[in-house]
Amino acid sequence: MGHDPRRAGPPPPSSNGPMPAPPAPLLAVDAAELRELIRDAHGAVKDLRAAIRDARQLAGDAATLAAAGVAEAASKELTRFARHLQAEQNRNAADLNAIVERARDHIVKALTMATLEPDDDFRIFKVRFRAGPLFDQDVPLPGGGDEGARRD
After folding, report:
1. Which partner for 115 in 23, 43, 128, 145 could form a disulfide, CB atoms 3.0-4.6 Å apart?
2. Which DSSP helix (H) or strand (E) runs through 53?
3. Is residue 49 part of a domain?
């Protein structure tokens, strides 16, 4: 059975006996080359560990920066929304104040006495109030249609 060159490793020893040992100077050279390769590999491992440590630090820094950016953007958006909401509340309060003022005027006018007539038969006075127009309850809604308008 012959040696398959596609298989890893050295060929098996021949059946003729053990392989002869290489001369001592070659062993010393091979050992020195192996030590040099081990030193190079050790240096490469140290460099790789340092690169991994740096990459982890950079990833942590990037995550911190991203979180800060998201927090800042969210804060700005919440501030913008709060300002918009307050402006709408202020506008609605002004509208409501105007409506209440008109309602107050209408109620005062409606409750203002128009006439006071004595009724001699019953020995009382009849009070008549101004019967101003009532509040309009059939105002069409904005945008067309009559959903929400008063129904009888």
Report:
1. 128
2. helix 24-111
3. yes
Dist CA 34 CA 27 (whole Å)? 10
Give CA–CA dist 109/133, Å, rounded: 10
pTM of the model: 0.43
Q: Could you tell me if residue 138 is inside a domain?
A: no
- Scanning the structure block, which residue is given the tokens 């501030």? 79
pLDDT tens track of the chain, all 152 residues? 455 555 555 555 555 667 666 666 777 778 889 999 999 999 999 999 999 999 999 999 999 999 999 999 999 999 999 999 999 999 999 999 998 998 888 788 777 878 888 988 888 988 877 765 566 677 777 776 655 555 55
Is residue 5 a part of any domain in this protein?
Answer: no
DSSP summary character for residue 148: T
The closest of 88, 86, 67 to 78, measured between CA atoms, is: 86
Number of domains in the chain: 1
What is the domain extent for residue 96? 24-129
- In a 3-state reduction of DSSP, which class is residue 147? coil
* CA–CA distance, 28 with 82 (Å, rounded to integer): 80
